[in-house]
Every structure is written in C-alpha cells, then in structure tokens.
Amino acid sequence: METEELMEKAVKFHGHECPGVTIGVLVSKYILEHGMDFSLDEEIVAVVENDNCSVDAIQALLGTTFGKGNLIHLDYGKNNFTFYNRTNKKAIKLSLKNSSFGGRDLPREERIQKLLDANPKDIFNIQKVEFDPPQFAQIHESIICENCGDPTMGTRIKEFKGKKLCIPCYEKLK
Ligand SMILES: [Zn+2]
Ligand SMILES: [Zn+2]
After folding, report:
1. How far, in Å, is the centroid of ligand 1 from the Cα of 48?
2. In whole angstroms, what is the distance from residue 8 CA to residue 3 CA?
C-alpha cells in the first residue's frame, strides 16, 4: 500500500489528520515493508510506550488491538514502538529521534508533509532487539468482588481488610 492509502485508512479510524497519526503510519509502513514476514494476525505483537494518536494508526494498519491481546501499552510516555513476531521470535524497535521532528512551530499540514517526505531512518532509530514477550490474552478465572458483586479477573482483585475487591471498589474503600 502506498503511504497515501495508509494515511487515508489511519485517518478514517483515528478521526482526524495530525502529526501523531502520521508517525504511526510511518511506523506501520516500515513494519509492513520490512516486516519480518509478519502475517498480520495474532502473530504480530505491538508494544507501544505511549497512548497518543500514533497508536491508532498502528491498530488500524497492523491489526494489533487490545481486544486481541496483541497490543500492549506500557505507560512510559515515550514514542517507542516494538513489534514482535511470535512465529520467528524476531523483534524490531522504532524510536522517534525527536518528538518535534518537522518543527513544532510549522503549520500542521506542513509538518505532516515533512514527515511523509522524510526517510524513516531520519525520523526513527531502528534496531533489532531481543524481546521477551509478556503473556498474551490470558484468560484468568473471575473472582466476585465482595463489595459490588462484579465478576472480576483474578489478577485485578485487591485485598483490603480481608475482602476481595475490584479496583474501583478498592479505590473507594481504602
Ligand atoms: Zn490525532
Ligand atoms: Zn467492586
């Protein structure tokens, strides 16, 4: 797919055109082209270190989603994107070199265009990495919260004064 097509698809999903979604498109394009033989299914796992606009492009174009358990968000506030192929165990990491790439003071349209025209290697540090994937899409037994009665994934249950509580109830009662 051409960049233009990818942009269109990502923008449709994301709702607006912005530098963030453009960065996600460039990341996705790189992975699609240098794809470590990805089949774009559950074999690919994306680990993103931010939850900004760029992640929408990755969901739309690479099919890594929260629901499938192959999109993992680490809340580090960094523009780092790691992709892991579960079949051949290879991983590749793209890190944005400079978050103001393209110039923050440029009009949005110009900045987007500058990003689209650039060589990915000027925008990202790209490296093969060792990657130990976390466990994916695990089904855990539910435990009933003793306060609200909601069945809750066991790993999310907290103990407080001898009661097993879901996170919202724990936050309320602690
Ligand atoms: Zn956006
Ligand atoms: Zn509860």
Report:
1. 16
2. 9
State how far the Cα of 16 lies from the Cα of 97, in Å rounded to an integer: 24
Q: How many Å apart are CA 143 and CA 30, to the nearest integer? A: 42
* 49 and 112 belong to one structural domain: yes
Q: How far apart are CA 13 and CA 8, in angstroms?
A: 9
pTM (2 d.p.): 0.77
State which residues form the domain around 104.
Answer: 3-129
Q: How confident is the model at residue 137 (pLDDT cuts 50, 70, 90)?
A: very low
79 & 165 share domain:
no
Residues with CB under 5 A from ligand 1 (ion): 18, 20-21, 53
Q: Find the DSSP H helices in 47-135.
A: 53-62, 108-117, 120-123
CATH code of the domain covering residue 152: 3.30.60
